[in-house]
Amino acid sequence: MDELTHNISDGVVHFGNVDWWYHNRGHSSVRMATRIAKHVPTLWINSIGMRMPVPGKTQIAWSRYWRKIKSLTRGLKRDPESGMYIYSPLFVPLYSAKMLQFNGWLLALQVKILRWRLNMKHPAAVVSMPTMTPAVEKLKWNKVLFERCDDFTTLPEADKDRIAALEKRLLDISDTAIYVHEGLMERELGLVKESVLIGHGVDFDKFVAARNSPNGCLDLPKPIIGFFGGMDDYRMDVELMIKIARHIRGTLVLIGPKQMDLSSVLAEKNVKHIDQISPDELATYAANFDVGIIPFLQNDFNKMCNPIKLKEYLALAYPSVVMALPAFEEYKSLIYSSNSHQEFLDNIDKALDENDPSLIEKRRATVSSSDWDNVAARVAKLLAVPLTKA
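RESULT FIELD:
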């Protein structure tokens, strides 16, 4: 890959790790990209994935096929709110070494045409998905930034060695890698020109305002124990969610797209699922929770994750019950951290009985200086993007 030599990037191509049309748009990648799009032309390339759904092995495999087919029919669209362009690329959903190279050639061709169409002469690239590395390598960029949001080598059903090799190639060609997890950054120091711990932001004022004036949009039996975000089989602890539903007297609310089989959880009479809602509406719904939960598996993938929702729970200031993971350690005095299912259930009871008003301000103070606009501005600077209207 030959780099350009311009001081300013006149556009950004974001090789995303989610599909705009059916994944959770609350992901940090989307939060940053939509803000940068207000300053320079920004093209979001929908994820091409890392594993082929296998009926009988991968949860909701046929549903995954169908939603991707629907996404592909959309072609290039523009989001009217942010002005960002969304593109669903044509690719072959196979991940052998040869097919990855073929997809790299095919994707690079499509991106080259789109860059010309959008008049991006000196664009920067943000890459969140390692399977897009072959395409990035084939094009010239003003800057390349690797958004290191997860350790994808631990993703079930993905080829660990092949993904690790792609990640190494991407680190080699990147000007900067940004991280949300300090442990992952420390593990890769020296493998990339520049490493930056960027962290997550939070729409602080929006969440505080929603909590202070809840609108009662969740008219359900109380207390409401709630979770919001993408739900994947490699993240969520189904057994724990069933236990929570049976343990509480009120309602377990799950908000977000179903990317896994939740039928056993939804079979419980006091479980309510609400499909994907926009980030703008999320605070309004989440403000009605009495306790926020993160019932994640304590697996290798989650040990390197850093869920945005914890900062949002802290801005809402209600008690949060989580399975213990490294990213939660710094907030341990403000949340209820659990190392077993039984401890999680006991902590829900403690959270519901909480009677310490000072915790409200302490929780909010911890995240009050975090803001997505500030995070996006830091990323824009790394990409050599001027923060002025395009």
